[in-house]
Amino acid sequence: MAKKKRLRLIAEMARKIRAYRELKSRPRDSQKYALDYETMKRPLTGKMLPVMAWRDVRKEIRLFSLLAGLKLFGIGRMFTRKSWLEDHTEPSYWQITKVKVDHTAENMDHGKAWGILTYKGKSESEAKEVDKVMYHDWRLIPKHMEQQFKDFTPLPEPPMRYVPYPPLLRAMMLAEHHKAGGSGEFKEPALPLKRDVRLTRAYFIAQAKEKQMTEGTAV
């Protein structure tokens, strides 16, 4: 019989205490994402923000800076981002359902938020944590425009017309391409799901000529 492993209570307690101390000593979001707006550096890490982000950082605002000035910290309100408004014609926004504020932050402008994401007009069924809350491009959607965002009907996705080749067949085609000395980029093959061919007399004549050229004339 295998020897039963002895439980070391003191060592297990010491491990839990070390894990708890590491958890308590890790920097909070208000320290981690603090920013010196003159040098554009984060004091904790000393890293400088990308130059392309300086304009938004100076003119725009973070999500929790908006939530801190709203009733019930913005629960039930809708928020979008500047990049979404510029890149997509379909509405993309978060509807906040839960907020956990970091009360140790000076202006209570840090924390975690949860909500239902609608991206390019398609809403998700369950709430999840809002990502990129520290970005400086968040916008509050006015109440008189909320229904306009919600009434959008996404267009149906076009039917799938092509599917990728099976892995083994694709590997054989890739080997043939290299064997033939193909130096250019390998064009990914795709199988059509539907082949629109008019079964005319010319089509069958062309098929017979192609078969004769490949197999030869019977003797």
Describe, in plain words, how this protein is organized in 3D:
- With 219 residues, the protein is an alpha+beta fold.
- The chain has a domain at 61-151.
- Helices cover 34% and strands 16% of the residues.
- It contains eight helices and eight strands.
- It has helices at residues 9-25, 29-32, 54-59, 63-67, 82-87, 143-150, 167-179, 201-215, and strands at residues 78-81, 93-101, 111-119, 122-123, 128-129, 138-140, 162-164, 190-192.
- The strands form two sheets. Strands 1, 2, 3, 4, 5 and 6 form a six-stranded antiparallel sheet that branches. A two-stranded antiparallel ribbon has the order 7-8.
- The longest helix has 17 residues, at 9-25.
- The radius of gyration is 30 Å and the shape is extended.
- The N and C termini lie far apart (80 Å).
- The relative contact order is 0.09.
- The mean pLDDT is 82.
Large-scale geometry: extended
User: What structural class should be given to the helix and strand makeup?
Assistant: alpha+beta
Fraction of residues in H or I helices: 25-40%
Q: Tally the helices: what do you get?
A: 8
Span from first to last CA? 80 Å
Give Rg in angstroms. Answer: 30 Å
Number of strands: 8
Strand content range = 15-25%
Main sheet specs: 6 strands, antiparallel
Q: Any low-confidence stretches, pLDDT <50, length ≥5?
A: none
H/E series, N to C?
HHHHEHEEEEEHEHEH
